[in-house]
Amino acid sequence: MKKNSEILLSIICPIYNGEKVVGNLIESLENQEYKDYELVLVNDGSEDNTLKVLNEYSKKYPNIIVVDKPHTGLCDTRNVGVEHSHGKYLTIGDCDDYYSADFFEKIIPIIQEGGFELLIFNAYVMNYDKFMHYLIPDKYKSGYFEEKNGVYKYLRGQFGHQIANNTWNKIYPREIIDKYKFKYSVENHGEDLLYHILYTSKITKYRYFNEKLYYYQLNMNPLTTSSYRENEVKDVLDYYEPIKKICVNSQLEKWEEYLSLFFLRRLPIIVLNETNCNDYNKGKENIESFLNNKIILSLFKKIKFKYFDFKLFISFLLYKLKLYKLVYIVLWKKRHKKRNH
Q: How many CA atoms lie within 13 A of 55 on its CB side?
């Protein structure tokens, strides 16, 4: 293995109680011909045999670094992994996922070409090892592109599919992370989204590489997995202050107009989430609490039609014509009728 200063790519993987799955990720990398990378495995205070498994792998493969720490959560664990890594470029995976067999063969030449401040690649989204869809639609072609301030595109929804919010399909130059002291927030919900909104406020050069190089395991069984997020409204509203701060600090003009679209786009998500609430009245109250929030009321006065796409138009109809009430009633009854049978 090369010296720390010569490592091109560090792959960081936070792990909590992953003794049964982390081996797939490790082997998916170690079975490839390319070896001059660093794999930083961070045990987040696991209560199973994860640490033992990681230590066994580190004895087998010299390019593995194992970091053991108390359980503090995903964001802090990612930050610790970055601190213990040495590569010129960084990427962060999830312990229950794995990389394609040609990951290094295809991504290393792209990294070596350079010229980017953020490299994005495509991925397979799997559910219990069954293919569901690609992370990014095929209409987005490989190549370089520039955006002076990508925040406005994020808020308008134009960046959503092209670069996605996920961490595991990104490669970051260390010099950018060090320059701006980027860290994952341990205080906010939606750490990936906030991280990348902040990241895009500081960079201009992007490289998209439309190759599926990662397998993301969704692993959701609708019969056994609750899809209801109890704090969804609070979590969405908590986006306001950190995103506002990013907009102001990056001197983004018309940021309130863009932010109004960001929250409008989340109305259907909130409505659909509340249809999974067991308490009909509580779900209805949660939707109303979102729409009657003073921040939302203020922002929605600044909505501009010129930014609308089809999804935003539907969201606007839900809001302006109060169609969300009808949608909520119909879907709540439909979903709970199924569950009662």
A: 5
